[in-house]
Amino acid sequence: MADSMEILVRHHKTGSAKGWRFPRGLMALVTGILILLAIGGSGSVADERAAFVDLHRCEIAERLTRIGATATPDGKNRFIVVALEERGQSYVQCLFDKEGTSLLCEASSGFYGPAEGEDGHLVLTASEIAALGALGFDTGASDGNFQRMLTLSGGVDFDAVAILVLKALYDGYGARARSRLEIHAPLARGPGAAPCTPVG
Fold it and tell me: pTM to 2 decimals?
């Protein structure tokens, strides 16, 4: 599992961001602006966070559902990466195990990205790391990303997984409703057949 995740991270690092562009990014951006206007200056941080989560939750949950329902030889390509476009190495990724009984989610620590002193090196503040820890990610590792293992059982709630991913992006990497997300999921490219309502 660890080897698979390292390969996945390296793919994220070297892959073309343009190839990952969220197909409905413009719609999401416009919807995000409308949400911010609705919240107005009196909106709380909790309101803004909930708006960001609601904006993307359905799309990510739907893709996770498709990945989970697709069997592949040796479990290859059963993953999703959700990245913040404007801040390099800011992503959360989840990988299904071969048996489909667990889901390993990782929040980027910058370990696999550019080294300290190089352009694009990710530096997380103490408060951002603490926020990821509060979401259940193990932030004590110094030789990899911050991990959280989720056990899958009957009636898996991929909506809850999507919410976890989005909260991590908001709390740990500064994503907001105006932010553009890049989603990489080989087994769930583009939006599904069923329409998603951006705000739930």
Answer: 0.77
